[in-house]
């Protein structure tokens, strides 16, 4: 019997809440489902959705420790989002000040992909999948 059905959400802790909130909503285009300030933890929790699907919990905490993400550090490697046209997506994000890596081809699937980073250097992948 399979118990896991799908990924429910990805939790991200940011160093600058307002900067990351702007990046995920205004640059990447996530919708805000709910925003709460938790006074006891001096922490914000921002629930974000994409196309009506709950995806990301964005947290702020006072002075969170840094976590190395490159090169190939142990733990979560990156998050990836599907796009229909990678060239159009790259052009769009670059127009908003996002620096992307050159578009590459996945050697196993022959699909196009690229990477960029969020404000805390979390690697984010765009992966072209035609519907």
Question: Can I get a quick summary?
Answer:
The chain is α/β, with parallel strands linked by helices and 131 residues long.
Name its key features.
131 residues, alpha/beta, 2,3-Dihydroxybiphenyl 1,2-Dioxygenase, domain 1, 2 domains, globular
Write up what this structure looks like:
With 131 residues, the chain is α/β, with parallel strands linked by helices. A 4-stranded mixed beta sheet has the order 1-4-3-2, with helices on one face. It has helices at residues 17-27, 86-95, and strands at 10-14, 31-38, 43-50, 53-60, 79-83, 104-105, 112-117, 123-128. It folds into 2 domains: 1-63, 2,3-Dihydroxybiphenyl 1,2-Dioxygenase, domain 1 (Roll); 76-131, 2,3-Dihydroxybiphenyl 1,2-Dioxygenase, domain 1 (Roll), CATH 3.10.180.10.
Spatial extent as radius of gyration: 16 Å
Largest sheet: 4 strands, mixed
CATH architecture of the largest domain: Roll
Weakly predicted, low-confidence segments: none
**How many DSSP helices?**
2
The H-and-E topology, N to C, reads as: EHEEEEHEEE
CATH topology label of the largest domain: 2,3-Dihydroxybiphenyl 1,2-Dioxygenase, domain 1
Structural topology:
Elements: E1 10-14, H1 17-27, E2 31-38, E3 43-50, E4 53-60, E5 79-83, H2 86-95, E6 104-105, E7 112-117, E8 123-128
Parallel strand pairs: 1-4, 5-8
Antiparallel strand pairs: 2-3, 3-4, 6-7, 7-8
